[in-house]
């Protein structure tokens, strides 16, 4: 069906930048039958800024590639086997995908063939709010009631929920991501029933795809409610078989912790974090942060500047700040679980204390010990294993004194240490 064209203003809409509108004019001059599809249509309807602009066309991919080249547009065959060519205009990518039908699915990937039927292409998409398209004249093509679902805050699978999930199990996780961003009220009952029955299909997915979706759920809108839903329908236990602490995660988010995926994963997941990070194939930086915030010393809200500098000399501020967030989450979860009032604890409500501690850590420069092994050699000590011992002795002194001693002061302490050794 075609909706009221007044939803869109001419060839552009609120949410598209001037550069995007110009690029679309150029693309539509080459492919007049092409339509905007997916998220861009959804964002335009909601008058949100548009990040990615995707289009579909009945033209086969080889023809799309040829026409772009003939028009002098840079064309990159980013997904030729799936019918996708990326047009690069003013350094920005615009994906143009040939209309498709699924000829074979296995729960992970689909084998596709080309079609000229817009409804058939829309029918293979996951949710009704993602199955709409918009033509160059501003007309909205909505075959499955996506516009109404978007208005009502209903995230609903196109057609039969079980069929959509069996085609690609990642849609289970995508449901919670979209429910968090666009859903309102109770989730679609048919979707939840299908997800509960077929959660075991998640084991078919690569861990990279799982982590890509999970981190967007952890840091997205309504993260708490989506994690609770995932827990209720058994999805969370499949993703985190080591166990999940929903209460701790809730406490962390409610405390105002940043939308940092490894930090939120640290609050949610139980068990060995190194094993978890490698199972989910986190990046090296993500793994290092996850492990660091989940172990080690937690700064006290009453710590002196000297004590904080000693901690900062050994590890970065972001790890220490992350531990402070988790400590605050633990305190909140403990009070919730045991129904403890702030007045029942000696420290009372120390939210302000945690905030001040994080601010101190963030503002404090990380101390760097000013000496190295070459300084020991330059002072006349012979090379060998004792060089490290002497240097460590001076560094221990530097740490004990709050990591504030200058290089000259440390050199003087080195000289004194060497004199003691001679004696």
From TrEMBL:
InterPro entries: Bact_CCA-adding_enz_type3_sf (IPR050264), NT_sf (IPR043519), PolA_pol_head_dom (IPR002646), PolyA_RNA-bd (IPR032828). The keyword Transport does not apply. Keywords: Magnesium, Metal-binding, Nucleotide-binding, Nucleotidyltransferase, RNA-binding, Transferase, tRNA processing. One of its GO terms (biological process) is tRNA processing. GO terms for molecular function: metal ion binding; nucleotide binding; nucleotidyltransferase activity; tRNA binding. CDD domains: NT_ClassII-CCAase. Residues 189-243 form the tRNA nucleotidyltransferase/poly(A) polymerase RNA and SrmB- binding domain. Residues 34-156 form the Poly A polymerase head domain. The keyword Nucleotidyltransferase applies. It comes from the Bacteria. Its cofactor is Mg(2+). Belongs to the tRNA nucleotidyltransferase/poly(A) polymerase family. This is Poly(A) polymerase.
């Amino acid at each position: 069906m075609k909706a009221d064209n007044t939803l869109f203003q001419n060839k552009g809409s609120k949410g598209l930048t001037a550069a995007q509108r110009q690029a679309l004019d150029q693309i539509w001059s080459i492919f007049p039958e092409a339509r905007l599809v997916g998220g861009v249509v959804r964002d335009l309807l909601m008058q949100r800024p548009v990040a990615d602009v995707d289009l579909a066309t009945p033209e086969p991919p080889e023809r799309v590639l040829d026409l772009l080249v003939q028009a002098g547009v840079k064309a990159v065959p980013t997904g030729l086997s799936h019918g996708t060519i990326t047009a690069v205009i003013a350094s920005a990518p615009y994906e143009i995908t040939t209309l498709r039908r699924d000829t074979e699915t296995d729960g992970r990937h689909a084998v596709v063939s080309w079609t000229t039927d817009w409804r058939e292409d829309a029918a293979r998409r996951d949710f009704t709010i993602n199955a709409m398209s918009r033509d160059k004249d501003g007309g909205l093509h909505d075959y499955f009631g996506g516009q109404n679902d978007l208005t009502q805050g209903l995230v609903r699978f196109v057609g039969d929920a079980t069929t959509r999930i069996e085609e690609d199990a990642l849609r289970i996780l995508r449901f919670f991501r979209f429910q968090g961003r666009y859903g309102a009220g109770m989730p679609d009952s048919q979707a939840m029933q299908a997800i509960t029955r077929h959660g075991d299909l998640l084991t078919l997915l690569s861990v990279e795809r799982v982590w890509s979706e999970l981190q967007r759920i952890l840091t997205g809108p309504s993260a708490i409610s989506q994690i609770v839903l995932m827990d209720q329908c058994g999805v969370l236990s499949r993703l985190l078989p080591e166990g999940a602490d929903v209460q701790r995660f809730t406490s962390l988010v409610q405390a105002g912790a940043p939308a940092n995926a490894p930090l939120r994963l640290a609050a949610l997941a139980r068990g060995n974090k190194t094993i978890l990070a490698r199972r989910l194939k986190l990046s090296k930086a993500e793994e290092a942060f996850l492990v660091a915030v989940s172990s080690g010393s937690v700064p006290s809200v009453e710590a002196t500047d000297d004590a904080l500098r000693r901690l900062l000399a050994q590890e970065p501020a972001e790890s220490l700040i992350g531990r402070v967030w988790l400590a605050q989450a633990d305190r909140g979860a403990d009070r919730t679980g045991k129904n403890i009032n702030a007045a029942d604890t000696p420290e009372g409500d120390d939210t302000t204390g945690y905030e001040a501690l994080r601010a101190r850590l963030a503002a404090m420069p990380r101390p760097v010990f000013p000496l190295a092994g070459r300084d020991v050699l330059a002072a006349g000590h012979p090379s060998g294993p004792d060089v490290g011992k002497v240097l460590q002795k001076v560094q221990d002194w530097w740490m004990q004194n709050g990591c504030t001693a200058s290089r000259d002061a440390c050199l003087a302490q080195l000289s004194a240490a060497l004199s003691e050794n001679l004696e």
